[in-house]
Design a protein that fits this description.
The structure is a single chain. The chain is an alpha+beta fold. It contains two helices and two strands. It has a domain of 51 residues. Strand 1 and strand 2 form a beta hairpin. Helix 1 packs antiparallel against helix 2. The longest helix has 21 residues.
Length: 79
């Protein structure tokens, strides 16, 4: 079951603090959509550099495949 967690950097203790987390499917789907959109925009940003554009495209595909495994399309339950 996927869990989305909001973390905040604690400069005093040098670690991340968990502030909240959720299993809510609609939140996970919205997160997936936002992350993939940002990754896709990064691929567009490297029009003048073939190497960086290809690297961003590979990262987008990797991320898309992983998120599809964790948050599959069309699943109806909250897991």
């Amino acid at each position: 079951m996927a869990v989305l967690t909001l973390q905040y950097p604690d400069a005093y203790e040098g670690r991340l603090r968990i502030l909240a987390s959720t299993h809510d499917r609609s939140v996970l789907v919205a997160f997936k959509k936002a992350v993939l959109e940002e990754a896709k925009l990064r691929t567009i940003g490297f029009v003048d550099d073939e190497i960086l554009r290809r690297d961003a495209e590979f990262e987008y595909e990797r991320l898309h495949n992983l998120l599809d495994m964790v948050i599959p399309e069309g699943a109806t339950d909250d897991r």
